[in-house]
Amino acid sequence: MKKIKKILTSPVTTIAAFALAAGLLLFSSVGGARAALTYFSDDYASDIRLEEIGVTLLENGAGVQGELLAGLIPEGESLKFGKAYPEVLSVLNSGAINEYVRVSIYKYWTDEDGEKLTTLSPDLIGLNLANVGSGWILDGEASTPERTVLYYSGLLGTGESTPAFTDTLTIDGDIASRVRQTSVSSGGYTTITTIYEYDGARFCVEAKVDAVQEHNAQDAIWSAWGRRVTVNNGVLSLD
Amino acid sequence: MKKRNILAAVKATACAMTAGLILSASVGSAWSYFTTYTSASGSHAIDLGNETRVVERFSDSTKRLTITNDSLQPVYVRATAFSGSGYPLSYSDASGLWVDGGDGYHYYSQSLPARQETAEGTVASRTSELEVKITFPVDEEVEDGDGFNVVVVYESVPVRYDGDGNELKPWEIDWTEELKSGPVEGGA
After folding, report:
1. Which residues of chain A have pLDDT under 50?
2. CB-CB contact of B49 with B100 (8 Å)
3. Domain boundaries, chain B
4. H or E segment at A179?
5. B52-162 maps to which CATH number?
6. Tally of CA atoms within 13 A in the half-sphere of B52 that contains its CB
7. A2-9 vs A11-37: helix axis angle to the nearest 10?
8. ipTM beyond 0.85?
9. pLDDT digits (tens, 9 = 90+) for B153-163
10. Would the CB atoms of B49 and A78 count as touching at under 8 Å?
């Protein structure tokens, strides 16, 4: 045992082991280089094409670039309470592959600085849904008074557009009966001031369109949108 | 001591493997499917503030009322007057635009448009004159300096429209609609 220990701790053994390791390292590098060289062959051209998925929101037939309601009120006219303004929203597949789409619509009120006014009712912003039950499916579980979620049941082919999911926008005339009152008492008199609650508020509409690939759509929708759906013969339904 | 070192090394390796697995798993799902989205939003301001004023001229036992709209909002107006029971009032209108609603009020049959901005300045819209004449009993002699009260009440509401954008008639809207108010702020 002592003899073995002596051999292992001797400088000669250390130098020999170092030389052996260096040799192995060198040869393995050369071997690797040689191996790489053997894979070279004649010139080979490869063509890799990434599939493009695209979606566009259409407002009254025209593509929308981030801004909605720009042409809602005709020039020189003020907003008419109770009038149903045309607001036809639909979705265009502007990509190179087929897709399934869903839409999330948000309605709410803000002050002039853009701060959300949660005490004002989204119900008074009447965005009328269209084709629900005939192409579009309302996701009641995900919808609230402020948010509406719709799924298009069909597969949307390249260049195709869906039927409209909204057709008109109406601001309910009932806003003229919603008031806020302040009371000030002075000198034996009480002055009650009534102010329109919605005066100066801004009604806002937001629409977000999501699209997902056709292939393996059921799992893709679960993964990307967190919603269980069934896709059967190209027709989507909510679970 | 050696055991502790080994345990620490095992722990570090396990942590590194777990982190690697988590990272690789999330990367994998993000690359799994083609998805995209687009979004758009828009807004418009509501202008409900309307300011109307009544101007009264009195002569020959008759009050002549004119109501002006100085706001950005078109409005409907209606007016009525009260006097003592022994002093009946009668209404007349040369323009024919004031209509007796049968409920004690006279309705101006047209909406008062929003004020106009012109080169000369702001121009408010106004109604034609509604004349309210007080009739004194025949056996009562009225002398200069006698006092009596005729109280005029007028109201205005923003114009309402049907679904096609046509104005409703002033008497077609519900003037008795109760205002919906939250708690009154302030007070004694």
Report:
1. 31-34, 36-38
2. no
3. 52-162
4. strand A178-186
5. 2.60.40
6. 27
7. 60
8. no
9. 888 888 888 88
10. no
